[in-house]
Design brief:
Layout lengths: L15 E8 L5 E7 L2 E7 L10 E3 L3 E5 L3 E5 L16 H18 L3 E8 L6 H12 L5 E8 L7 H14 L3 E4 L7 H15 L3 E5 L4 H11 L6 E5 L8 H14 L2 E4 L16 H7 L3 E3 L16 H10 L5 H8 L1 H6 L15 E5 L3 H6 L4 E5 L2 E6 L9 H6 L11
Parallel strand pairs: 1-4, 6-7, 7-8, 8-9, 9-10, 10-11, 11-12, 12-13
Antiparallel strand pairs: 1-2, 2-3, 5-14, 14-15, 15-16
Length: about 400
């Protein structure tokens, strides 16, 4: 056909991206068009590939809503290895928080909630550093902060209360802390809830939940508070008598309080390790999210900050179905963070994770290669190639290979 008779090709949309040949959890293979930070269309494989937009080949990948990290410790992350106390300058904290968030982004978490201690010697310096890291990460990942004063009651708590209010004015998104460390835990909770109500902030409290009576009182006080209350890691709930744990779970569910468990290990501020009774809580109607907690600090020197590992542990150790386990690090985690729901459907936010594999159980088991999409663009890639030396078994059994090169 002469050039003058050729059909004009559509100009590429600079804000558009097409994910080609991705597999969904329902077994379909699709193309997904992204634009303006959202999913614009989902069509059968090949249907959207000729739109003129840039393409990413996702053949062999499972496409999922991206995970979110609901419980990370920013001011202590990546401090396990250096001898002696880690530097606590704002510059050093900002550097470590940035590095840790990028590690978690590489695993797939496009949103991270960071617990930050305020008061005592550090004052608001650590919070200022985390806010600086948040600004530098804009466009790569969403970082939100929880201000955590040590004391809030009595004469000693007056400074902590003033600093908590200052933290919100500075830009802290969530008010929280660890009531277990205050001489008056109930008074601490009352103060946090009062500040949250004043400022219209969510609440995120760090507690082992060892005292069932105290937890029931907390549920009574916090019930119905908007925009929401989360507790974590609540590992001691698993050590309560079954009848008591069921009663507490019912009260948490009635109050609309979410629980953030830490299946990968403990974190600073908790006395003992363990995981909250996730199946009991979910059966009672409690929203359960899973976080990473410590990321290579003294509380957990080998913490990975990997949401898929958290989901894997909930499935393999705690008997959850893979889909339910993944929900704790994706849909439920996003809900705890107050983020909009994500589905691989037109109109939803383009916050996505592509994992090498054909179905969810396999992806949780061997989640080596990952492609992360935030606001409609690829922000991180991790590729892994496994190779074996030549053997008769390869030829006889037709074993799959991920790489073309052969080991000599």
């Amino acid at each position: 056909m002469p050039d003058s008779q050729q059909q004009p090709q559509p100009a590429p949309d600079q804000g558009a991206l097409v994910l080609c040949g991705a597999r969904l959890t329902d077994g379909r293979t699709v193309d997904v068009r992204l634009g303006g930070g959202r999913i614009e269309a989902v069509g059968t494989a090949g249907a959207l590939a000729r739109t003129g937009a840039p393409r990413v080949d996702l053949r062999g990948y499972l496409l999922l809503p991206a995970p979110a990290e609901p419980h990370a410790h920013g001011d202590t992350c990546l401090t396990a290895e250096p001898p002696g106390p880690p530097p606590a300058t704002p510059e050093e904290i900002a550097r470590r928080v940035t590095e840790a968030t990028l590690l978690q982004l590489g695993h797939g978490a496009t949103a991270v909630r960071v617990q930050v201690r305020i008061g005592d010697v550090q004052g608001l310096g650590a919070l200022e550093a985390v806010l600086q890291a948040r600004r530098s990460l804009r466009g790569l990942a969403e970082l939100t902060t929880v201000a955590m004063p040590r004391l809030l009651t009595g004469v000693a708590g007056a400074d902590g209360l003033a600093m908590l209010r200052d933290a919100v004015k500075m830009g802290a998104d969530v008010v929280g802390g660890c009531p277990d460390l205050d001489p008056d835990p109930i008074g601490y909770v009352e103060t946090v809830l009062e500040v949250a109500a004043e400022q219209g902030c969510p609440v995120d409290l760090h507690t082992d939940a060892a005292d069932s009576a105290r937890l029931s009182r907390l549920a009574a006080m916090a019930g119905g508070l908007r925009p929401g209350v989360a507790l974590g890691p609540c590992a001691a709930l698993a050590r309560l008598p079954a009848e008591t744990a069921h009663r507490v779970a019912d009260r948490l569910a009635a109050a609309g309080i979410a629980v953030v468990c830490l299946p990968q290990g403990g974190c600073a501020g908790t006395d003992r390790r363990g995981t909250a009774p996730v199946r009991l809580l979910r059966a009672a109607g409690v929203r359960v999210a899973a976080g990473s907690g410590a990321l290579r600090d003294l509380a957990n020197p080998v913490g990975r900050g990997d949401p898929l590992e958290a989901a894997y542990l909930l499935a393999s150790v705690h008997g959850m179905r893979p889909a339910d386990a993944y929900d704790t690090v994706s849909a439920s985690a996003r809900a705890v963070l107050g983020l909009p729901e994500v589905r691989v459907e037109a109109g939803f936010p383009a916050e996505l994770l592509a994992v090498r594999g054909e179905e969810l159980a396999g992806a949780l088991s061997l989640a080596y290669s990952r492609i992360v999409v935030h606001r409609g663009r690829v922000v991180a890639r991790t590729s892994a190639v496994r190779e074996y030396c030549n053997s008769a078994a390869e030829a006889e059994l037709g074993l799959p290979r991920q790489g073309r090169k052969r080991l000599s």
